[in-house]
Each structure stands twice: as C-alpha cells, then as structure tokens.
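Treating backbone geometry as a discrete language has practical consequences that deserve illustration. The amino acid sequence and the backbone structure tokens for this protein are reproduced below.
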Amino acid sequence: MGDGESNEWMAAQARVERARGLFLSGKLEEAAIELRRALAVDPDRGDWHHSLAVTLDAQGRHGEAMASYERALELVPNHAHALIGAAQGSMRQGKPDACVAFCDRAVRIDTKLEPAYSLKIMALGMLQKFDDAESTYFLAQQYLGEMPLCLAEMAHVLAAQGKFDRAIWCFRESIAQNPKIPGVKTRLGLILLQAGQPEPAHQVLLQSLRDHPGDSRTLLALGSALEALGRPTEAEEKYRHTVELEPANQVAHVRLGDLALRGGRLEEARAAYTLVISLGLKDPAIRLRLVEVLARVGLRAEARRHLEEMFLRGSASVIRDAAVAYGAAGAALECGTPRAAVALMRMGVQLASEDARQWTRYARALFEDGERAAGRRAARRALRLDRKCTETLHNVALDALRHSEIKRALAAIARGLRHAPSDEGLRKLRVHAWGKRAAGQWRGVALTVRSIALAIRSLRW
C-alpha cells in the first residue's frame, strides 16, 4: 500500500469514527454520508456496511438497510449482529421463514444472543408454529439467565392461543427483569384487555404513559381500557390527545367516530369516518359505518352509492365484525337496496348466529328481496331462538298477506297476539287480513251468482 493509499484508508477510517459520533448525537443523515464516503474508499469492509445498515434502519429507510445487512453478510458471513439486523429486516418485509434462518445462524455463532431467540419466537408465532416457538423459548432458558425479550415475545405467542394467564405472567416477568424495554407495559395492558381485565389494564397503561408521555399507542390502548370501564368521556379525551399529537392517526379518528356514533352524534361520526377514508384507510368496515351514518342522517342516495361501489368491487365481502354488518344491513334496507342488506345480514348471522333479533332482520331482508323460502327459514331460526318474537311473526304475516296466503297470515298473527295481545302492528294486520278474507269470500259469492246466470242463459228448452 502506497503512502497515498494509506492516507486515503486512514481518512476513511476517520470518517467511520466521525460517523459513530454523529450517530450517537442523532445526526443520522450526516452519519450515513460519512459511512458511504468511507465505503467508497474500501467497499469490502463488512463491519462498515453493518454500521451503515444500522444507521439507515434508525432513519426508517429499512429497504436500503436490508440491502446493507445482506452485503455485510456476503463479506463477513459470521457477523452475528448483521444476522440480527437481517432477521429484523425480514420480519419487516413479512418474511418470517427468512427471519428464522438468520436467527439460527446467529445462535450457532453466539448461544447467548438473546435477540436471536426472541426474534425466532416472534417469527414462529407469526407462522403459527406455536410448539416450535415454545421449544425455542425453553432452549433460550438453557443459555440465558434473564431473558426479558424472549418472555415478551413468548407472551404474544401464548395470547394468540388464548392462554392469557400464562401470557400475562410472561409479560410481568419480562417487566420485572427489565422495566425499561419500550412498549412492553403497553403490550401487557392490551393483553389484559383481551383477557377481560380492564381495571388492571388501566393501571398498567397509566404506568406506561408515565414512562413514555405522549406515546400514541399507549394513549389508544388507555382509551380502549376506559371504554371497557364505561368511561367514554375520558376515553374520548385520550383519542383527541392522540389526534393532537398525530393529526393523521387513523385509528384515533375511527375511535372518535365510533364513540360519536354510539352517542348519537351522527354528524361528528360522519365527519370522522369521511376523514379517515380521505386519509387512505381501506378498511371496508369503516365504509359500512359511514353508510349507516349517512342513512340515519337522511343522505340515502350517498349511502346507496357507497354500497353499490363496495359490492361492485367485492370489498364488502371481507367484513369480520357482526355489529358492523348488522348496522350497514339496516341502512341498506332503508336505502332500498335489499340485495345488499341480504348479503350483509348473511355475513352477520354467520359471525353471530345466536342473536334472534338479527335473524329477524335477516328474514325481513330476504322477504324484501323476494327470497321467500330463505326468508321463512330465517324466520323459523329466529323463532327457535325467541318464541315470543312478535316482530318476526309480523314479518311472516305481512309476507303471507302480500301473496294472498290469508290462512298462513292469520295463524302467524294469532300466535303473535297470544304473546302480545296489545301489539298495535299485529292488530292492524289482523284487521287487514280479515278484510282480505271477506273480500275473497264476497268475490266467491259474486262468481257463483254469475256462473248460475250464465248457466241459465245457456239452457235449452
């Protein structure tokens, strides 16, 4: 190496040292520039590529970071920390299998590298290989004394299987071993909420917020806990605080819309749902909530337009919330689109099949859409769940009257009046049915008289 080359290499080394200082002082872009200049002099330094990858990750430039991790590993295949970085990058890219492979390589190099075990547990949980995740957890116990990261990830795996007691224990043990791991208290609060323990969740989330004031995820979780405790006004304050900190936070706007909808503040709900859709949220459940609100404020043409667009694109078929499907189905009926109502109610009863009221609404939608046989089946299901459901009997009677099945209509009306003798709707239907029966009888008499007259005229003497 000549003097010029030596000086150039020393200058590159100095740039790397300067980059380290810039990184520690938060000047990430300047640090990345220095590292790139150093690599231009010596592009075969795997450790420098790793430093650049870490810097890019800290900037949120994860795609570029992943390329740098991979280049570092080409040059130094046994660089354990580059393997951890690549494993994290694989998880960000939604490639848990690749993450597992990187983690396995890392622990072969260093059996005490806890992030490798914790990332592998996370990846196996994502792949729903729960037994393998638990085996990894027990393997880590053999090499590590304290393992707060593994405990936190194992808690998620257990919660995904509905094993909430064990998950909560793992989270609490993780916090006991290292209370400073970011986000673990918030994650514990969310699991406590899932386990139906809103008060302990509330306490844990308050602690988390004291540790990290202004953390939007904690604020949202705290709002959920307050809602579960029946304190919607305080929950709304948390969501509004989130929006103040992050004006484009879609989840916070949705929560505010939901609270407004439940509180009957329809214009507020409409504004919130319209805003999150304009922010690019693609969740069809939010569009259907907006449909419900539009129908309730009288903007039925706009609600119908949203419904038609959703069913045209097929996006409404992915609803996973029965309450949303039911609410939108009612709106669809009001908007005069019974076919959409039928499809939505079908989703709803599949998600929550033991609700008699929803089977009643489903039957009504089917009757409105002309699917009489299916409507009768849905009505029978509603009556099996609630024998005294006068609304179902009213709908059955009305459908029968529309098709001049007077006997069937009167039987349904009589059954309903046995349970609710003063039901005004059934009493009116009974009068109408009596009128139709009488009209039919008089028509029969008139036809008989007419046929006799014709017969007399045709007699031959």
Notes: Residues 451-461 have pLDDT under 50 and may be disordered. The chain has 25 helices and no strands. The domain at 195-281 is CATH 1.25.40.10 (Serine Threonine Protein Phosphatase 5, Tetratricopeptide repeat).
